[in-house]
Model the fold of this input.
Amino acid sequence: EAGVAQSPRYKIIEKRQSVAFWCNPISGHATLYWYQQILGQGPKLLIQFQNNGVVDDSQLPKDRFSAERLKGVDSTLKIQPAKLEDSAVYLCASSLAFGYSQETQYFGPGTRLLVL
Amino acid sequence: AQSVTQLGSHVSVSEGALVLLRCNYSSSVPPYLFWYVQYPNQGLQLLLKYTSAATLVKGINGFEAEFKKSETSFHLTKPSAHMSDAAEYFCAVNTGTASKLTFGTGTRLQVTL
Done:
């Protein structure tokens, strides 16, 4: 089966510009996650969707970050305006069900963002 | 609150030597624990997970981990390292009902000839 797809793989922008990342989860997976991975750190959850509803966005900087998951499938994460500290890898993951702590999350290859 | 601590940000072993990557967790309820591997410029891939069925968990690529409640540990081991094992390894914990993973800071494994 196809894995989690993300695009673009790399993006370089200047500070104060906007950028958007796209994610297509594994077919049939109800839950979708966006993580931010800063160099030298583990991934940090930004937002979690169940179908097209937000479950957890407590770590999302809402003044500049937004995300949506229309129709409960694809998702887009946007940053506007970008800051230097947003330079990181943005990982998308999906899991089949929701509410099970032992559920495996499947990760995409990530989008590497560099803000100059 | 849940957290994991990975001791050693870098570990170097010789090819054929034992691999031991350490992970300690903090949780007020029984945890589910995961080890993920990340190869350069790739996403994370699940190596193995502990779901309370058995304390010794076997994963892919010859890795295994043992859950020790008394030591709050879930260390990852492999009897004989291969060059292809060079990657970053992340331990993660989930104790809630919303499938929220909390990751450690990672350990970079280097395998030398």
The two ends of chain A are 37 Å apart (CA to CA). The interface with chain B takes residues 4, 31, 40-45, 48, 55-56, 91, 93, 95, 97-110, 112 of chain A (CB under 8 Å). The CA atoms of residues 89 and 112 of chain A lie 4 Å apart. Chain A has a mean pLDDT of 93.
